[in-house]
Amino acid sequence: MRVLLSAEEIAERVEALADGFAGQVDDGWTVVALLQGAIPFAADLMRAIERRGRHPIYDSLWLESYHDARESSGKVVVRADISRAIEGRPALIVDDVFDSGRTIAYARAHLMAKGATRTLACAFVRKPQAMGEAIDAIGWDAPNDFLVGYGMDDAGRYRGLPYIAALD
Ligand SMILES: O=P(O)(O)OC[C@H]1O[C@H](OP(=O)(O)OP(=O)(O)O)[C@H](O)[C@@H]1O
Ligand code: HPA
After folding, report:
1. N or C: which end of the chain has fewer CB within 10 A?
2. ipTM exceeds 0.95, yes or no
3. For the chain, what is the domain count?
4. Can you give the residue ranges of the Phosphoribosyltransferase domain (predicted)?
5. Residue 162 belongs to some domain of the structure
6. Is residue 70 domain-resident?
């Protein structure tokens, strides 16, 4: 395992993202974390947003397309839907990694179909193949490795690593 981004570097980037969102994401917004990978990043980002005096609603949407594989199945499945109405509200979608771009595109369409007024999307990591795909903010542009840590897994393992590493 090669460490590519330390816990300290992650924390700095989360604060910068929260600074960027604090002017926009107010109490009328819903932050939607995409389970399972978004959990560490969404927890850090929510706390950073709340420290800036903003108190959006927090919700989760469980989407799955990789399961235990290292390549996307190409099909996004909803394992569990959001728990509150999104109709008439803007949503900030939060995910760990933006790779093919399929998961976030699916989440945007899903929330808009439920009546969200608009979506912003943010992933902590962007992989090279997602360059050029639509996203509103990212924390870090990663090299083309299979990554683990800070929510990213290999068949369910390593999500809790406080740093991001490449699996060789
Ligand atoms: O841009 P994409 O190619 O769609 O890849 C990104 C998605 O892949 C992972 O989800 P996964 O399906 O592995 O579920 P998980 O969140 O439970 O790990 C990750 O958490 C992102 O949601
Ligand atoms: O590099 C990755 N690591 C873990 N999960 C992922 N889902 C998409 N890309 C990745």
Report:
1. C
2. yes
3. 1
4. 9-131
5. yes
6. no
Distance (Å) from CA 4 to ligand 2 centroid:
14
| Residue 146 alpha carbon to ligand 2 centre in Å | 6
Query: With a 6 A CB cut-off, is 96 part of the ligand 2 pocket?
Result: no
In a domain, 30, yes or no: yes
* CATH of residue 162: 3.40.50.2020
The band of 73, judged by pLDDT with boundaries at 50, 70 and 90, is confident
Asked whether residue 117 is assigned to any structural domain, the reply reads yes
- B/e letters for 119-151, b = 16+ CB within 10 Å, e = fewer, are bbbbbbbbbeebeebebebbbbebeeeebbbbb
From the CB of 63, is ligand 2 less than 6 Å away?
Answer: no
* 110 vs 71, more confident: 110
Q: Are 37 and 147 in contact (CB under 8 A)?
A: no
Nearest CA among 167, 94, 107 for reference residue 137: 94
Q: pLDDT tens-digit profile of 114-159?
A: 999 999 999 999 999 998 889 999 999 999 999 999 999 999 999 9
